[in-house]
Amino acid sequence: MKRTILKKKLPQAGLMMLLLATASCGPAEFILGDYENTANPENATLEKKITVSELTPTVIVDFGPGRAGLSDLEKGRLLGFIDAQDIGFGEPVEVELPTFQGSDGLNERRFGDVAEFLQERGFEVSPRTTRESGANSLRVYFVKYVATVDPSCEKGWHKPRALDYQNLPLPYMGCANASALAGMLANPKDLIDPASEDPAMGERAAKAVEKYRASTGSSSSGGSSGSGSE
């Protein structure tokens, strides 16, 4: 229940009379201030949750009856979808896999044309089987992950109007760390399904160091011999 804050200024004599009149009242009968934002053991935790949601934006690519190739209009719509979703180079994109039976190869050519268009632009294309598909259309899917911070952090940094005699952390403590971590994530999916480490990464790095050391040693020896000849 929201309680109204007493803001009106009273003369000193009037304030003393008010205090004397309410001396016999319980704390529930005479309350100054709004206690909705008081820190308590439930909301005073420093750890804030980061929720990772999986989203699947979809665009429908239309074909004319009996037409297998993409029109310029549909190519433009595909490029607009890529820009709107900020799909990066090399990211996976799924193309609806239609049934090839009874289409005289038309659906197969349509799927190949869409996949080739996306692959030429550097995307990793994989088929997605669906239960229902349009007669003259194919759907393109992009699976992405979005990280959101604990809803208690939406209000931002503020000073609660309530009183806290337990010396507990304020309800929004920890929101800055959670927001910073969510903002630094290149791919929020790494929080729930971390990418596997490339086993050859260390070998490549070691070869680079060996090559650098070899080139540095040869140049230094050559420099010292040159200085000795002088």
Describe the overall structure.
With 230 residues, the protein is an alpha+beta fold. Among the domains are: 1-36, no CATH class; 57-142, 2-Layer Sandwich (60s Ribosomal Protein L30, Chain: A). It is 33% helix and 15% strand. The protein has 5 helices and 6 strands; from the N terminus they run H-E-E-H-E-H-E-E-E-H-H. It is flat, with a radius of gyration of 33 Å.
Task: Chart the SSEs and their pairings.
Elements: H1 12-21, E1 50-55, E2 58-62, H2 72-85, E3 92-97, H3 106-119, E4 124-129, E5 137-141, E6 144-149, H4 175-184, H5 201-229
Parallel strand pairs: 3-4
Antiparallel strand pairs: 1-6, 2-5, 3-5
Question: Main traits of this protein?
Answer:
230 residues, alpha+beta, 60s Ribosomal Protein L30, Chain: A, four-stranded mixed β-sheet, two-stranded antiparallel ribbon, 5 helices, 6 strands, 15% strand, disordered C terminus
